[in-house]
Structures are given as structure tokens and as C-alpha cells.
């Protein structure tokens, strides 16, 4: 009978500090502010004959690399219906919300492929990057992935993938 286990990854390096604002409607958004975000990943699957689930090092490194890339940047939603993001010739950003213009240097901004910069979307982005099409995880007998992103103690959002193969 197969034995399953869950490996939980929540390393010190799986964190990033970033600014953002949440857009609530075409006329209402939060003020610019920041969080110390943390990321948690759980991998569930079948233990192999060698007593291991899988080599989860590459997945851990992918999360740490993404955290480093987003650290100390301002996160903007690139797919918002209510925010228009423009880049000038130097790459600097102007974000248009209602009658406001918010200006940022290119080096300070990360434009994400999301509707809104929320915990829900951040957890999804981490998860989708880790899972890809799922084939590599299935080869490693990983059947479930849970990614959680927190903006502080006690406030998490989860994203989940489960193998259907």
C-alpha cells in the first residue's frame, strides 16, 4: 500500500517586503502601503522506496528566487480594469487611477499579471509558477500543492493544485 506524506516549506528566505494598494472599485483604492509578506508551500505525495517524497530543492529555490525578485519593490496590477499602467521610453511607470497619476521609477516597480495585488493573487502566482503544467510534479509522485501567502501574522490566503492523473 502506498505511503503518502506532506513536506511543508516555510524557510526564512521565503519572504519579501513590498508595497502595494488594493483596488476596491473604479473610484476607491487603498493608500500606498507595504507588508512583510511570507510564503509557505506544502507538497503532498507518495513516498518512494528511498524514503523520500521528491527532491523539493528546485521548488524551494523557485520560491526564494521569486521572493528576492519582488523584495523592496512596489507591486502594481498589470491587468486591472480600473488602473492603467504606462511605461515611458526610460521604462519608468505612470499608473492612472481615476483622475490620479502615480509615478514610479522602473527599478522600484514590479508589474504583475493580475487584476489586483491581493494575497489571493500572490498565492496564485507563486502556485502557478511552481506547478506549471503539473507534469514534473506528477513524475515526482506529488499529488497536491498548497501555497499560502501572508501579509502578516494571522492573515493568509491559500492556493491549491491537485493532480487529476
How do you describe this structure in short?
By secondary structure, the protein is an alpha+beta fold.
Low-confidence stretches: none
Category from helices, strands and their pairing: alpha+beta
Strand content: 35-45%
CATH topology: Tetrahydropterin Synthase, Chain A
Biggest β-sheet description: 7 strands, mixed
Mean pLDDT: 95
Helix proportion of residues, in percent?
10-25%
What would CATH call the architecture?
A: 2-Layer Sandwich
What's the structural domain tally? 1
Radius of gyration: 18 Å
- Order of secondary-structure elements: EEEHEEEEEHHEE
Q: Say which CATH homologous superfamily is assigned.
A: 6-pyruvoyl tetrahydropterin synthase/QueD
Please report the number of helical segments. 3
Count of DSSP E strands?
A: 10
What spatial form do the alpha-carbon principal axes imply?
A: elongated
Please report the distance between the alpha carbons of the first and last residues: 18 Å
CATH class membership: Alpha Beta
Describe this structure in words.
The protein is α+β, with helices and mostly antiparallel strands and 165 residues long. It has a single domain (4-76, 115-162), classed as 6-pyruvoyl tetrahydropterin synthase/QueD (Tetrahydropterin Synthase, Chain A, 2-Layer Sandwich), CATH 3.30.479.10. 19% of the residues lie in helices and 42% in strands. It has 3 helices and 10 strands, in the order βββαβββββααββ. Strands 1, 2, 3, 4, 8, 9 and 10 form a 7-stranded mixed beta sheet that branches. A hairpin with a 2-residue loop joins β6 and β7 (100-104). The model has no long low-confidence stretch (mean pLDDT 95).
Amino acid at each position: 500500500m502506498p505511503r503518502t506524506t506532506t513536506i511543508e516549506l516555510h524557510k526564512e528566505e521565503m519572504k519579501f517586503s513590498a508595497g502595494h494598494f488594493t483596488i476596491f472599485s473604479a473610484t476607491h483604492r487603498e493608500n500606498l502601503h507595504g507588508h512583510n509578506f511570507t510564503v509557505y508551500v506544502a507538497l503532498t505525495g507518495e513516498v518512494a522506496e528511498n524514503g523520500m517524497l521528491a527532491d523539493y530543492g528546485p521548488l524551494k529555490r523557485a520560491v526564494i528566487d521569486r521572493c528576492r525578485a519582488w523584495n523592496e519593490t512596489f507591486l502594481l496590477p498589470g491587468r486591472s480594469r480600473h488602473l492603467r499602467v504606462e511605461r515611458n521610453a526610460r521604462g519608468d511607470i505612470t499608473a492612472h487611477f481615476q483622475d490620479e497619476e502615480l509615478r514610479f521609477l522602473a527599478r522600484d516597480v514590479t508589474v504583475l499579471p493580475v487584476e489586483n495585488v491581493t494575497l489571493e493573487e500572490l498565492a496564485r502566482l507563486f502556485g502557478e509558477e511552481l506547478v506549471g503544467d503539473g507534469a514534473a510534479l506528477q513524475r515526482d509522485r506529488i499529488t497536491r500543492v498548497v501555497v499560502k501567502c501572508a501579509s502578516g501574522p494571522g492573515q493568509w490566503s491559500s492556493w491549491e493544485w491537485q493532480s487529476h492523473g
